[in-house]
User: Fold Methylated-DNA-[protein]-cysteine S-methyltransferase from Candidatus Argoarchaeum ethanivorans.
Amino acid sequence: MPHTLSRDNLTVTITLYHNTIRKITLSKARHGLKKAENTIDLFDDISAYLDGERVDFSRYSVDLENLTDFQQMVLNKVRQIPYGVTVTYGMLAKDLQTSPRAIGGALSKNPAPIVIPCHRVIGKHGLGGFAWGVTIKKHLLEVEGSIDSQPDVLSRLDD
DNA sequence: GTTCCGTATATAG
DNA sequence: CTATATACGGAAC
Assistant:
């Protein structure tokens, strides 16, 4: 049974298994949906994060069991990217001896956005993709001060 | 600005 | 195994 937190036009749902994060999904909040069950620590951390606090999510464990070795390698690497820092798909590819497309493919399987900060991986030219919509990716980067903040990003665009 | 190709990985048939 | 699809990058036009 997933927990839901909704604020700032952003809805976060979290599925836990014991003390491990199974899945996190992000979406634009729909009208009328704004109940928050802040029953776990992670919600406090995510809420603080969305307030612009420099939160460290490294203490949380994420279930990567059903991913390939390659995908786990990429995601574990991405967890090491510090707050407010962005790298490109190409930089990670060079580091891991693979191709930028392969990096993107692995990131698209990220089960826990924010906790595993795949939004900090961007294209050399544009933002790149984001499984939950590039608008949300842009929002997260603005929260961290990585790109210039613009008013009400999430309600401006669709996906 | 566009289009096209090389690349690595995953998935479907 | 072959074909197809990618959250890319770079060259060429």
Observations:
- Chain A is about 30% helix and 20% strand.
- Strands of chain A lie at 3-7, 10-17, 20-28, 61-62, 87-88, 121-122.
- The CA atoms of residues 14 and 91 of chain A lie 30 Å apart.
- The longest strand of chain A covers residues 20-28.
